[in-house]
Design a protein that fits this description.
10 helices; four-stranded antiparallel beta sheet; eight-stranded mixed beta sheet; alpha+beta; globular
Length: about 625
């Protein structure tokens, strides 16, 4: 499409691009989940960097072309802090929404129609010490059933329970059942968990409970996403036997579990947050034997339609790269007439930037283990106005994702395009330990965090150098949170990369373990080990003497997951060693930056830092660099 246009030759990294940091930060609205109201209209949770990260509920317009309706009043912010990561902050039933408010963490009930004034459902404890998530409105019982995390007795070891909050009186409970997921330390929910069903007595108490999955000592599995169909059948996702998260059904009469459609693919993702919904029932003539479901397979997303009675399965042809949460609209609410986009993370006309967009290539590269491979998304430089010099190869920025039990996807990410449209190559690595590729792939990281992830990021960069695609003298690495740890470990324990950027990354594993919230307080036991010597040996802070390249650090001062002390310790140590280093701290930011101005600043300062230290080019943008110790 742009091949006939004559391009200017310029150094990789120096290209001018309309995909500016302002464009990126202004286009990063976040989708925090969605639901359907009683009229069949979609309601979604929208995170807004331009409003200091505030999250609001928005309702789909009644008529095409009309503006969507903002539901949440200006003084509210729909967000929960359960497990610190949140998720599941709101629930919709008919024309009623129940949500958690960020400032006080109380639950509020709000009518979607009328004056929209929220009414508090839970007590005011004077501080946000009692939190709620993942609730269900039970019209039969007249209550809201939800997870409560209570910090009143202890902030480091809060009590987590399932409670009911009265909405409009208590109805009949005889014969009612409820399902829930539970797990025990030292496991994370994706390591080993259990699915339970409880039978309710007349007074609303659980009089009998049955474990449906996860209690077999001879089989390790991690069931998740239990859902009742309208016929009262229980469905869920688990990774028993095959190691892939697949759909299953519980046969209550025999207490047996049936696989619905075995496939070497992942039908869910690790439960870092509440509220995931990877499948939904499609009502048809009063029956719901049809299930719409999404799954991941070798880096690609798919949407399928499963008839669990007939056992048939078919793919839906969609023009999308990543597909995650699914909700279903009842047949009598809307007629299916095609695909329509009702929300976008950006108000930009993306087609205006097509000439600068780099499409990802899924690459499979050899790891340090003979015969073993890992995966990454490779984005090569792309700009219709520029090309590199013939005798030059582009610099490479490798990103190590957070988690570490998580994964990168291939959806359009303007943060990545910011780099590639300026002449950088970008590799988004799904190292061993990433989700999306089976339990066996996830467990490569067991006892090997700081080794396998680091080796795989290095192997990816070295593979791209050996195949002639990037410049081996300009290899950089970046990462957030756990990815920041991988970044620091790669810079300290390996010599592959020439510079790095750590965003709220871990420098001291012992300090991380001591300060971790309850949810992941034993996470390092499986990732590294219980022995304190292992934590010491894998901590970059203890081996700064091995470091030989520049680092820039970014940290939110309200981060409760990776405390600011981590960034300050590594900064002080690198500064003392005499290497170029910079530390940027943000007031009001937590674990992940939500404010547009900080998203912009972080992106620009990484770019100019790398340009000045290892780039061999001058950044095209007019960026005032921060002071770099031992350099300026």
């Amino acid at each position: 499409m742009y091949a006939d246009k004559e391009k200017m030759s310029a150094a990789y990294g120096s290209w001018k691009s309309p995909i500016t940091a302002d464009v990126v930060s202004g286009a990063e609205k976040l989708l925090g989940g969605f639901a359907v109201d009683g009229e069949g209209r979609v309601i979604w949770l929208e995170g807004r960097p331009t409003e200091a990260g505030r999250s609001v509920l928005v309702r789909e317009a009644t008529h095409a072309g009309d503006a969507a309706e903002e539901i949440t009043p200006a003084e509210f912010n729909v967000r929960t802090l359960v497990h610190e990561y949140g998720g599941g902050a709101f629930t919709v039933s008919g024309d009623v929404v129940v949500f958690s408010n960020y400032e006080d963490q109380r639950l509020y009930k709000q009518s979607i129609k009328g004056d929209h004034v929220p009414i508090a459902l839970t007590p005011d404890y004077g501080a946000p010490v009692v939190r709620y998530a993942d609730g269900v409105i039970d019209l039969h019982l007249g209550c809201y059933i939800t997870v409560r995390e209570d910090h009143r007795e202890s902030d480091t070891n809060p009590t987590t329970t399932i409670i009911s909050v009265e909405l409009n009186g208590v109805g009949k409970t005889d014969g009612r059942r409820m399902a829930w997921i539970e797990w025990k330390h030292p496991n994370m929910p994706w390591d080993k968990s259990e699915l339970w069903v409880g039978y309710l007595s007349a007074d609303g108490k659980i009089e009998k409970r049955v474990c449906i999955a996860g209690d077999d000592p001879n089989m390790i599995e991690s069931p998740t996403e239990p859902k009742w169909s309208s016929q009262g059948e229980l469905f869920f996702v688990t990774d028993r036997k095959s190691g892939f998260w697949n759909l299953y059904k519980w046969v209550e009469s025999t207490n047996e579990v049936q696989a619905l459609y075995p496939l070497d693919a992942e039908f869910t993702r690790p439960s870092w947050e509440f509220g995931y919904s990877s499948y939904a029932f499609v009502e048809h003539k009063g029956q719901n034997n049809i299930i719409a479901c999404t799954y991941r397979q070798k880096g690609l997303s798919y949407l399928g339609i499963l008839d669990h009675v007939l056992g048939s399965f078919s793919l839906v042809d969609l023009p999308f790269t990543d597909i995650y949460n699914i909700v279903s609209i009842e047949e009598n609410q809307v007629a299916m007439s095609g695909i329509s986009i009702i929300w976008s993370s950006s108000s930009l006309n993306i087609s205006e930037y097509n000439a600068y967009i780099s499409s990802p290539e899924i690459i499979e590269f050899p790891t340090k283990v003979p015969g073993q491979t890992a995966f990454a998304y490779l984005y090569l430089p792309s700009n219709s106005n520029y090309q590199g010099f013939e005798d030059e190869k582009p610099p490479l920025l490798v990103e190590s994702h957070g988690g570490p039990t998580s994964e990168s996807g291939a959806a359009l990410n303007l943060s990545i395009q910011y780099w590639t449209s300026r002449g950088w190559a970008f590799a988004d690595v799904n190292y061993g330990g990433s989700s999306g590729y089976s339990r066996q792939y996830r467990e490569r990281l067991n006892a090997s965090w700081g080794i396998v992830d680091v080796d795989d990021c290095c192997s990816c960069a070295e593979f791209l150098v050996s195949t002639g695609r990037v410049d081996g003298e300009r290899l950089c690495i970046t990462g957030k949170s756990a990815g920041g740890y991988t970044t620091l470990a790669a810079l300290v324990f390996r010599k592959t990369f020439k510079a790095g950027a750590s965003l709220f990354g871990v420098a001291d594993l012992a300090l991380l373990k001591a300060d971790m919230p309850k949810f992941e307080s034993y996470y390092t036991d499986s990732l590294v080990g219980k022995d304190e010597s292992l934590l010491y040996d894998r901590s970059p802070i203890n081996f700064v003497d091995k470091l030989s390249c520049p680092i820039i650090l970014f940290q939110g001062l309200e981060d409760k997951v990776v405390l600011p002390e981590q960034a300050r310790k590594i900064y002080a140590a690198v500064k003392e060693k005499g290497l170029p280093v910079a530390l940027i701290e943000y007031e009001g930011e937590q674990h992940g930056f939500r404010k547009a101005e900080n998203i912009k600043h972080t992106l620009e300062q990484q770019m100019v830092f790398f340009a000045r230290l290892i780039g061999k080019f001058k950044a095209a943008d007019d960026i005032i660099p921060v002071h770099i110790e031992n350099f300026d």
